[in-house]
What does this fold into?
Amino acid sequence: AVNHSRLKLIDKSPWHFHHYKPSKPTKEQEFGTKFHTLLLEPDLFCSKYICEPQFTSSGRSKEGKAERQEFMEKHPGMETIDRYDWIMLHSMDEAIRTDPYAKQIFSSGQSELTALWDDKKTGISCKGRIDWIPDAIPNVIVDLKTTRDAHPDNLSKACYNFGYYTQAAFYLGGWEAI
It folds into this structure.
């Protein structure tokens, strides 16, 4: 089945679609993934990530390297998040959980659901990963996005540049088909 990200490549050219190779996520994408995990799968977040402590010495020194090594050995398999990002992620999570409307949406529901359907017009098998289906509001799907700047002018540019409007149409078409 084909997903929206792959279909977007057709806008560039069929060559880009057929020769797709996943690229390494950007820092912004990694941050968005961490926020998705914190908000939508908090238990997974706690088992996967840990806040990097303030070390007593530089990571360039022998002592600093040993201090970091000891910390990672105490937390095997965990990925560290620097203090600034840790605070930002938890502040964003708190803002959503304390906003009356967002609190209603995210209080209970299902996260990270894979949707499979056949497009009515083309017959192509499609798939999508739905971030959240709230229990409180019937027939609603939520696609969570993070942004550097939520000013309406900049947000509308980001929605256009990243093709969020076509992703919304793709997911809504799939939701209707399902």
About this structure: The two ends are 15 Å apart (CA to CA). The longest strand covers residues 109-118.
